[in-house]
């Protein structure tokens, strides 16, 4: 049988033949590229002050690249919402910076050998299946620039972000009912977008021609390419100043320090053993709502990890039991390069095991976490191992849920010493024609509340993408035909608990012209779960024509919901889950929530057993009545699961109150 991947069976028509003939790389492409190894011999001595200088320079270059992109890009998603990331990688393709996740360099080096690269080259890709797990959906466009020192590649600067439109069936390139990637937009495998400083005008024209927003796409790509080229020059100066051997030894020292820190301060907090938990996406845009399972079996061992004598702790994350790939676009290609992208995506959850919140914030997530984690994937054809050309544009439902599944399975191991659940990203927006007859697209990534923690309430309206934000009202009202009549906290949305879940957004938009509303969101049925007695938060909800004769709730997956001029769209995002028994929340904290408007008087009684009177500015808690109500509720309740999923779980599970894995 031929080994030429171009002659392999078509997986869309003959899955069995494809699986039988596929090379080891799930992308079906050659894997003969060097990656993941050290740059200096183990034990090489490096001046610790120099390591600090190198680490600070890397962070500075990364920040400078992101600042340049933000200041020179054009689309609201990149310039204003800041939905993009930069990253720096060494010539072994290891991620060196730790303030943010990033895509992977692997697919570029796979298709363009390092020895054939030139100064001024810029590589581009957005192909989900050929990205080796680094790109989740087609609107995420990635540019990669090699860094040179004395004529040789020594590192890479990379940026990827979510762009307005790259074609496909609907504006925004995220059709909620897509059945193949072909409906989702233009898919570009790794190409050389700039050759020795000369842009490939033909490729740029193809991409802009396929976009509904060609001007902003062209401007964003120019900003990203220019910023990464600038970053490559800055990083090259570091090698010139200190020499290649010294800088590369510092790279190894930075990653070694991360490995040792996570081994000592994080993994050691998890008792040896095997733990199982699962959570679910609720719909895929094609089938009726159902439980799409993501399951983790976590095994912690105290030996077998990397380091001297291979004696350190390690984690095995096994995804066996994850549901079959969905018909709709909630699949994520995770099983590439040993799950390299997912390891770095999930590792921030483990930081919650640090000694303090302050220490947690100091822990970077770079390639140093990769050797500590082994991932085991099920066979091809699941939500995490989809077979091309399965659609992926709403893969956030899966990769966000995996953050919660890892938090939940670790919580079982450490008696709940992990935060409750959060769902902090969903895409909403409107599109149509403005008063001048010009087409527009406004899309926004709104955050939600984070989960309560064993020491504090969750945070309100956070975004899982670092440094990203909601669009400023002044900007949107001046550019798009609507008014923002309210932007505030969704009262009572945070899950009740000893420590309350954070609140989501409530946003009211009044349309000034007829338009269409779009939404790619999950957690409209299944709420963010509470833990150790904490209750689930309130789910996502969109209402069109609020208070009007045509008031209706819109499905969380919507491509073209009609909205008439004058109608109001109300968007309520998710609240985080609660932590601990809400009947143990001190009265003064409930009173404070009443005064701040985070909890209503009815919510205080229903969720916390607190009877209060007065006004929002001057609430008064009736302590005797509240004590009696709490005693009554404690006496009435029976055994409770360790996790509370909210009432939506019963709807999709056939009436079950909790899953088998929810009990300790």
UniProtKB/TrEMBL annotation:
**Ranges for domain Hydantoinase B/oxoprolinase:** 47-582
InterPro entries found in the cross-reference section: Hydantoinase_B, Oxoprolinase-like
Which chain regions cross the lipid bilayer? none
State the Pfam families in the record.
Hydantoinase_B (PF02538)
Could you identify this protein by its name? Hydantoinase B/oxoprolinase family protein
- The organism named in the record is Phycicoccus sonneratiae
Q: What is the lineage of its organism?
A: Bacteria, Bacillati, Actinomycetota, Actinomycetes, Micrococcales
């Amino acid at each position: 049988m031929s080994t030429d991947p171009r002659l392999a069976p078509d997986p869309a028509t003959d899955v069995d033949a494809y699986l039988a003939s596929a090379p080891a790389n799930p992308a079906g492409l050659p894997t003969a590229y060097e990656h993941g190894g050290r740059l200096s011999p183990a034990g090489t001595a490096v001046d610790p002050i120099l390591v600090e200088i190198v680490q600070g320079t890397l962070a500075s270059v990364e920040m400078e690249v992101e600042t340049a992109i933000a200041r020179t890009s054009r689309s609201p998603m990149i310039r204003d919402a800041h939905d993009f990331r930069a990253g720096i990688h060494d010539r072994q393709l290891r991620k060196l910076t730790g303030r943010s996740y990033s895509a992977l360099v692997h697919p570029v080096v796979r298709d363009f050998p390092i020895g054939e690269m030139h100064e001024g080259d810029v590589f581009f890709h957005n192909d989900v299946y050929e990205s080796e797990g680094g790109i989740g959906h087609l609107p995420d466009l990635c540019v990669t620039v090699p860094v040179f020192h004395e004529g040789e590649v020594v590192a890479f600067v990379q940026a990827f972000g979510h762009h307005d439109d790259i074609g496909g069936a609907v504006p925004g390139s995220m059709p909620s009912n897509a059945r193949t990637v072909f409906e989702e937009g233009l898919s570009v495998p790794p190409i050389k977008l700039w050759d020795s400083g000369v842009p490939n005008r033909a490729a740029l024209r193809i991409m802009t021609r396929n976009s509904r927003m060609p001007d902003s796409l062209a401007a964003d790509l120019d900003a990203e390419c220019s910023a990464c080229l600038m970053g490559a020059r800055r990083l090259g100066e570091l090698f010139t100043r200190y020499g290649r051997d010294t800088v590369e030894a510092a790279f190894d020292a930075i990653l070694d320090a991360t490995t040792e820190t996570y081994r000592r301060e994080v993994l050691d907090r998890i008792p040896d053993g095997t733990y199982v938990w699962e959570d679910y996406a609720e719909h895929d845009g094609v089938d009726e709502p159902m439980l799409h399972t993501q399951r983790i079996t976590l095994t912690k061992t105290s030996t077998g990890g990397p380091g001297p004598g291979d004696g350190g702790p390690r984690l095995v994350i096994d995804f066996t039991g994850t549901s079959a790939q969905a018909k709709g676009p909630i699949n994520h290609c995770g099983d590439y390069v040993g799950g390299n992208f997912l390891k770095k995506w999930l590792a921030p959850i483990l930081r919650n095991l640090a000694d303090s919140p302050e220490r947690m914030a100091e822990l970077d997530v770079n390639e140093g976490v990769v050797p500590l984690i082994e991932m085991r994937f099920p066979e091809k054809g699941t939500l995490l191992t989809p077979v091309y050309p399965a659609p992926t544009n709403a893969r956030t439902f899966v990769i966000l849920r995996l953050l919660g599944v890892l938090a939940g399975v670790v919580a079982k191991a450490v008696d709940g010493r992990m935060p409750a659940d959060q769902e902090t990203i969903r895409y909403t927006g409107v599109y149509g024609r403005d008063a001048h007859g010009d087409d527009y697209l406004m899309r926004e990534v709104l955050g939600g509340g984070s989960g309560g923690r064993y020491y504090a309430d969750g945070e309100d309206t956070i975004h899982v993408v670092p440094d990203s934000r909601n669009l400023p009202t002044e900007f949107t009202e001046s550019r798009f035909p609507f008014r923002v009549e309210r932007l505030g906290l969704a009262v009572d949305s945070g899950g009740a608990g000893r420590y309350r879940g954070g609140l989501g957004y409530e946003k009211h938009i009044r349309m000034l012209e007829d338009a269409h509303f779009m939404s790619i969101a999950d957690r409209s049925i299944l709420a963010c779960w509470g833990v150790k007695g904490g209750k689930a938060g309130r789910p996502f909800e969109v209402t069109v024509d609020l208070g009007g004769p045509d008031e209706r709730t819109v499905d969380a997956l919507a491509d073209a919901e009609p909205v008439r001029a004058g109608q109001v769209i109300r968007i309520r995002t998710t609240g985080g889950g609660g932590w601990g028994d809400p009947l143990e929340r001190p009265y003064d904290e409930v009173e404070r929530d009443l005064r701040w408007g985070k909890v209503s008087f009815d919510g205080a009684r229903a969720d916390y057993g607190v009877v209060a009177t007065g006004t929002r500015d001057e609430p008064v808690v009736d302590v005797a009545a509240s004590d009696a109500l709490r005693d009554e509720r404690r006496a009435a309740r029976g055994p409770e699961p360790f996790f509370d999923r909210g009432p939506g779980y019963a709807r999709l599970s056939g009436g079950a109150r909790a899953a088998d894995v929810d009990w300790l």
